[in-house]
Amino acid sequence: MTEWQPTACILCECNCGIQILLGPDGRSFDKIRGDKLHPASAGYTCNKALQLDHYQNGRTGRLTAPLRRGPDGNFVEIDWDTAISEIAARLREIGLRHGGESIFYYGGGGQGNHLGGAYATATMAAFGMRYRSSPLAQEKTGDFWVGARMAGHPMRADVEHAEVALFVGKNPYQSHGFPRARSVLKEIARDPERSMIVLDPVRTETAELADFHLQLRPGTDVYLLAAMAAILVRDNLIDHDWLAEHALGVEEVLAVLRAVPIEKYCAIADVELDLVTAATHRLARAASVAALEDLGVQMNRYSTVVSYAEKLVWLLTGNVGKPGTQYAFTGLSNIGFDRGHPAGEGPRSPVAGAPIISGLVPCNVIAEEILTDHPDRYRAMFIESANPVHSLADSARMREALAALELVVVVDVAMTETARQADYILPAPTQFEKYEATFFNFDFPRNIFHLRHPVLPAPDGVLPEPEIHARLVEAAEALTEDDYIPLRAALAQGREAFAMAFLGVMADRNKAKLAPVLLYRTLGPTLPDGADAAAMLWAAAHNCVRRFPQSVERAGYGTGLAAAEALFEAILTGRHGIVTTEDDYEETWNRLRDNKVQLNIPELLRVVATLPETDDDSVEWPFVLAAGERRAFTANTIIRDPRWRKRDAGGALRISLADAERLGLSAGDRVRLTTRRGSAEVPVEPTDRMRAGHLSLPNGLGLTVTDADGADITTGIAPNELTTLDSRDEWVGTPWHKYVPARLDTVEP
Ligand SMILES: Nc1nc2c(c(=O)[nH]1)N[C@H]1C(S)=C(S)[C@@H](COP(=O)(O)OP(=O)(O)OC[C@H]3O[C@@H](n4cnc5c(=O)[nH]c(N)nc54)[C@H](O)[C@@H]3O)O[C@H]1N2
Ligand SMILES: Nc1nc2c(c(=O)[nH]1)N[C@H]1C(S)=C(S)[C@@H](COP(=O)(O)OP(=O)(O)OC[C@H]3O[C@@H](n4cnc5c(=O)[nH]c(N)nc54)[C@H](O)[C@@H]3O)O[C@H]1N2
Ligand code: SF4
Ligand SMILES: [Mo]
User: What superkingdom does the record give (predicted)?
Assistant: First the structure.
């Protein structure tokens, strides 16, 4: 292979288009560059994409054969037929004894791979599984729920075209979250007509580019945002006409905001009133405001209430459905659609009775729902493309929970912290060895989709996730050749006949849930270049046309069935990514419930109305630890090879200069960091970016890999050895990892 091959970076949700040139061995990534032909990233990458060879070829503990844990606790290699039939038999047997709903599904994709997970719904149906979760239920479910309550449809921010960009607990310079983030941030910073407002206790790279950095005390965003909303009301900066036309529940909200003690709240947040006022006035003056909130608040005190207060700020100023504001996207993705039940009224998890948001059980109750003698407890877990032992709160408790289960199956590419706890491990090709895609595309006014083709062949011994799911579904006898034969016959007459036959099968609700595998086994083998895994995208394309006919038509695909086929064809052949839908900004209103926004969420407004008027620091725990910061060389646990990190190799604990001086600490000195849950030794990095009393540890460290001599090496601290399950949001159960009470002790060198 001597040609540049288009694919995408898999290290964050942006999935920038890249091109890879393989080395003479046909395996190493000799060169990597941004793909100028990618419709969203247009050649952009950050520093991390260039390190992807460490994911593909690094020291990762790559899995190349199915493994079964033996009676002595060690893994032994088994063949695929044995693995599939044993796993299917045990899942069936557990289902017979305890019901299929006792088998819990977790994961379904990381930052770059959602295609496999799209087939998992069939495996869930085949074994009667009902409950599931994913990492989204430890970060985004509060945002989803509030969005659903207020608008009935998720909205995203058009940062690129905004006059004012507002970042709340988000550091896009490192974490991205929208296309070409670093370039866009610099464009805003350079333009005297545009401004950036950042709420962050840390002077991040983003905060450095901001016009207004509100460097608040950690965990006080609810006060600061309530004060900002109250300033809008007090100074008559709200958009009355717009609200009269587009919003409901305005009076109730204004009544609460009129009573907010603005000065007191700014004092609690420890930000100068004048600065808060100036930033709020700037935002109110702007023709457009785009706001992004992220983990700094979503994993922090009052998380869901903060999501609400943040939205009030841009809703009161009328920032929806215009360029540079918030929009309701269209496209192939279904991620994050919640029904928005009032608190206490939606579906609930079987043991803890926790609210299920967007179909996901809160991550922080999973261990609780296993480690109990409740009859409805989970008995088995199927984990795919996720590393919950590392990524969920309280790793020790999660290990204990997995050990208590009758069966744990893990599908992954590497021997992860979670795979180490499994009974069976099923190895998959890497994301560059198979067809892969994400459903993380929310661009606007043009949305995109990128089906990536394999860059290099997979080694023997691994199977792509769609094939694993198909085999499990067949081993459960949920589908047989008899189900495939009529569909194949219809297909022989053309796609139109196939569509009709497929629609007929979908009328049977039990078969409808198996649709991905039905498509994979019938349409799949007829697709060019071994693109079987793309089969479910045919249904996704049809769905997209059904839901957003005009958007697809504007993107140039025509109308009706022909449009769906044209869109699917474009997906299959557009190797650099394609535009799927095209919209006008105003169309956002057609997607929102009743074409309006609802400002009054009574449960949350009540919290804003009754915030305690003091907020003292704890004496026992003098520090607040942010456990899991995004840095230049972190990428969740996707790259396991520690050598990929060109800076901050060990993942230092960042601490303010004042605290470092008081404790007599210099860069590289080791300290003992203690929380309610655990304790660890870690090197420090004193920096003037941090506030006194605040500490920060990077995410994605503490991974164990085996080096060339067979020795295990662990680099840095796994943050969730220090976090607790009970520190979580009242409404949706998301963890408060950015607000971990902590203590520091010096250690003798
Ligand atoms: N480099 C890199 N990029 C990534 C990832 C990665 O691992 N590495 N992971 C991806 C994933 S999965 C996600 S979800 C995103 C997350 O992206 P972000 O949420 O942007 O990342 P974090 O660094 O976790 O947290 C954001 C900011 O919150 C601030 N913060 C801490 N406490 C508070 C507080 O009390 N109030 C406020 N207002 N801010 C606070 C932190 O100082 C930090 O700057 O990043 C994605 N991008
Ligand atoms: N304390 C603390 N904890 C956190 C965070 C924090 O800020 N602080 N951040 C949280 C956030 S926002 C997130 S999103 C989560 C992330 O948590 P996870 O989603 O659990 O973590 P990832 O590292 O993204 O997991 C991806 C897994 O997929 C595997 N993988 C890679 N490619 C493939 C493939 O092609 N097929 C299969 N089957 N597997 C593959 C990788 O080896 C890895 O095990 O972490 C969360 N945990
Ligand atoms: S890590 Fe960087 S290059 Fe990779 S997708 Fe994210 S922004 Fe793009
Ligand atoms: Mo995330």
Answer: Bacteria
177 to 84, 170, 741: CA distances (angstroms): 38, 9, 28
Centre of ligand 4 to C-alpha 136, Å, is: 7
Counting other chains too, the contacts that 454-457 makes at CB distance below 8 Å and 24 or more residues apart are 454/429, 455/5, 455/7, 455/20, 455/22, 456/1, 456/22, 456/26, 456/27, 456/56, 456/432, 457/433
Q: Establish whether residue 15 lines the binding site of ligand 3, counting it when its CB lies within 6 angstroms of any ligand atom.
A: yes
One-letter identity of residue 402: L
DSSP for residue 643: G
> To which H or E segment does residue 473 belong?
helix 465-475
Ligand 2 proximity of 295 Cβ (cutoff 6 Å): yes
Query: Are 416 and 543 contacting, i.e. CB atoms less than 8 angstroms apart?
Result: no
CA atoms within 13 A on the CB side of 88: 20
Q: Which CATH number is associated with domain 617-746?
A: 2.40.40.20
At 1 the pLDDT is 56
* Ligand located closest to 52 CA: 3
Residues 67-130+379-438+446-582, CATH architecture: 3-Layer(aba) Sandwich (3.40)
Atom 46 of ligand 2, nearest CA residue? 391
- Architecture label for domain 143-331+597-608: 3-Layer(aba) Sandwich (3.40)
481-492 vs 495-506: helix crossing angle, rounded to 10: 150
Q: Which architecture characterizes domain 4-57 according to CATH?
A: 2-Layer Sandwich (3.30)
Expressed in angstroms and rounded, the spacing between residue 262 Cα and the centre of ligand 2 is: 40
CA angle 76, 79, 85 (to 5 degrees): 105
Q: Are 357 and 137 within 8 A, CB to CB?
A: yes
Please tell me the distance from the alpha carbon of residue 104 to that of residue 106, in angstroms, as a whole number: 7
Answer whether 219's CB lies under 8 Å from 284's CB: no
| Ligand 3 atom closest to the CA of 41, numbered from 1 | 8
CA of 393, nearest ligand number: 2
- List of residues 6+ apart from 538 with CB closer than 8 A: 519, 523, 564, 568
Q: For ligand 1, is residue 175 a contact (CB within 6 Å)?
A: yes
Q: What is the pLDDT of residue 575?
A: 98
**DSSP at 419:** G
Of all protein residues, whose CA lies closest to atom 39 belonging to ligand 1?
169
Closest C-alpha to ligand 1, atom 42: 202
Mean pLDDT by 10 residues, the chain (749 residues): 91 98 96 98 98 93 96 97 98 98 98 98 98 98 96 93 98 98 98 98 98 98 98 98 97 98 98 98 98 98 98 98 96 83 96 97 98 98 98 98 98 97 98 97 95 97 98 98 98 97 95 97 97 98 96 97 97 98 93 95 98 87 98 97 95 98 97 97 98 98 90 95 98 98 91
Q: For residue 52, what are its two tokens?
A: 């992807």
pLDDT digits (tens, 9 = 90+) for 293-324: 999 999 999 999 999 999 999 999 999 999 99
Report the C-alpha gap between 33 and 10 in whole angstroms.
14
What is the SS3 string spanning 51-79?
HCHHHHHCCCCECCCCEEECCCCCEEECC
- Nearest-CA residue for ligand 3 atom 6 is 12
Contact 570, 578 (CB under 8 A): yes
Whether the CB of 136 sits within 6 Å of ligand 2: no
pLDDT digits (tens, 9 = 90+) for 219-260: 999 999 999 999 999 999 999 999 999 999 999 999 999 999
Give residue limits of the domains in the chain.
Answer: 4-57, 67-130+379-438+446-582, 143-331+597-608, 617-746
Cα 45 to middle of ligand 3, angstroms: 6
Ligand nearest the Cα of residue 42 is 3
DSSP class of residue 135? G
CA atoms within 13 A on the CB side of 204: 28
